[in-house]
Amino acid sequence: MLRLKNINTYYGKVHALKNVSLHLGEGEIVTLIGANGAGKTTILNTISGVTPAGSGEVLFRKEPVTALTPDKIVKYGISQVPEGRQVFKPLSVEDNLELGAYLRYRNREDRTVIRRDMAQVFTLFPRLEERRRQLAGTMSGGEQQMLAIGRALMANPRLLLLDEPSMGLAPMVVQEIFRVLERLRRENGVTILLVEQNAKAALKLADRGYVLETGKIILEGASAELLENAEVKRAYLGKD
Ligand code: ATP
């Protein structure tokens, strides 16, 4: 459903992505792993139109979306959960969720659909419903991550891009969030591209993975293979 073909992305003279090609099938969970600065966030931002590619092509459901603006890309069905959550801290949980759906307001019927989607987010994350009137900035890191995911879901995406959702969270909370990602794929057929520092947890969740080093994909494979790969073990999985 998503294909990147020979993508090159630059920040001025910095050549951040070098001929990156990758693909995701419908309903797959795929993870990108790599050290700090390898280009993982840049891949997500290139897909979402935040940092457009200098050359190459991004195809979503066979249509080119390479040169589209981020709002158009959201309308196509691609939604991003940014690194560091970036929820609107002075706003309530409910208002944050409403903002996630703002591109969808056209008429009164839309509101009904949006209410239904919010109820669905509350089913996935009951804690958000309990705290619907709480200001986002006063919530814990885990709750803010749940809210950031909930807000992205309010755009009704077919493809969800997640940037380091586990960052700074306790293992139990990470497990809870990963269980929701699995459920989203199983029950809603959402396709997921997951960037993670926590390679072990990410590979356990994902079907496949790509390993990125200084802007290039150096390895790809089924998660089970990557978990057994000596190079991956040495560089990214640590000792156990
Ligand atoms: P991290 O895990 O630290 O977020 P990453 O793998 O997501 O790392 P990117 O953030 O994609 O890596 O960065 C890839 C490269 O592009 C790095 O060398 C980084 O310094 C550079 N880079 C990223 N953003 C900018 C920017 N706005 N201006 C200039 N260079 C940038």
Provide the fold topology.
Layout lengths: L1 E10 L2 E11 L4 E6 L5 H8 L7 E6 L2 E2 L5 H7 L1 E4 L11 H8 L7 H17 L1 H5 L10 H13 L5 E5 L7 H18 L2 E5 L3 H7 L2 E6 L2 E7 H6 L1 H8 L3
Parallel strand pairs: 3-8, 3-9, 6-7, 7-8
Antiparallel strand pairs: 1-2, 1-4, 4-5, 9-10
Helix pairs in contact: 3-6
The structure holds adenosine-5'-triphosphate.
Adenosine-5'-triphosphate binds next to strand 2 and helix 1.
What does this structure look like?
Helices cover 40% and strands 26% of the residues. It is α/β, with parallel strands linked by helices and 240 residues long. The protein folds into 2 domains: 1-77 and 157-239, 3-Layer(aba) Sandwich (Rossmann fold); 85-155, no CATH class. The chain has a 6-stranded mixed beta sheet, sandwiched between helices. Helix 3 (93-100) runs parallel beside helix 6. The chain is globular and about 50 Å long. The model has no long low-confidence stretch (mean pLDDT 93). Bound molecules: adenosine-5'-triphosphate. Belongs to the ABC transporter superfamily. Keywords: Amino-acid transport, ATP-binding, Nucleotide-binding, Transport.
Mean pLDDT: 93
Task: Give helix and strand order, one letter per element, not per position.
Answer: EEEHEEHEHHHHEHEHEEHH
- Give the CA-CA distance, first to last residue: 36 Å
Number of strands: 10
Largest sheet: 6 strands, mixed
Helix content: 40-55%
CATH class of the largest domain equals Alpha Beta
Q: Please state roughly what percent of the residues sit in beta strands, choosing from under 5%, 5-15%, 15-25%, 25-35%, 35-45% or over 45%.
A: 25-35%
Q: Please give the domain count.
A: 2
What CATH architecture of the largest domain do you see? 3-Layer(aba) Sandwich
